[in-house]
Design goal:
- The chain has 184 residues and is α/β, with parallel strands linked by helices.
- The protein has one domain: Alpha/beta knot, CATH 3.40.1280.
- The chain contains 5 helices and 6 strands.
- Helix 4 runs antiparallel to helix 5.
- It is globular, with a radius of gyration of 17 Å.
- The model has no long low-confidence stretch (mean pLDDT 85).
Amino acid sequence: MNLRTRVSLLMHAQEWNKSSNTGRLAHLCLPNSEIRFRGSRDGTPLDLSGLIDEEYETWMLYLSPESETLSEELVEKTAKPVRLLVLDGNWSQASRLGAKLGKQLKGVKHVMLSAGKPSEYRLRTEHHPDGLATFEAIARALGFLEGADVQEKMETLFRLMTDRVLWTRGKLAAEAVSGGLPSR
C-alpha cells in the first residue's frame, strides 16, 4: 500500500512481545510507518525527534478535551500529508503518555475517532465500550486520511489475524476462520 500518511507508533516496550499486540502488525502492513519505544527497562527516553517537521502536519490519535473528531471535513482542510502519532499500550499506559506528550509536543493536533461499530478484537478484554485495538484505530483513521479501500483491506487482514490467533489457541474451529486455513 502506497500511502501519503506516515504512521508513527509510540509503543510501550512491554507490548512488543505480546501475541495480542496489533501495533506491530500495523507496522508490518504499512510501509510508511515506524515504531518508537517507550518504557524500556534501561530508562531510555522516548525519541521525539523529527515528529514535527515541515513535510507533515502532525496529529496525535488521542482522546483529550482538545481533540477534534476525525472527519472528511477535517482532512479536506489539511494541505500537507499527515504524520499520525498512535499510542500503543494498555489504556492506562496510553493515557499517561498522551497527557505527557500533549505538554511536550506543542502544536500537535489531537484527533479522535467517533463512536462506530464495536471492536472486532477478541484477543484481549476491552474495558471501555468504545475501545479499539491499535490496528483497528489505525485502520479507521486511515479510512478518513487515505480512503475506504485502505480501511477495508486493513480490517480484512485484522479479522484474519484475529481468527487465526484464536484458532492456534484452540478457541475457534478451522471452519470459522476468515479466509479459511491452508490444508495440511
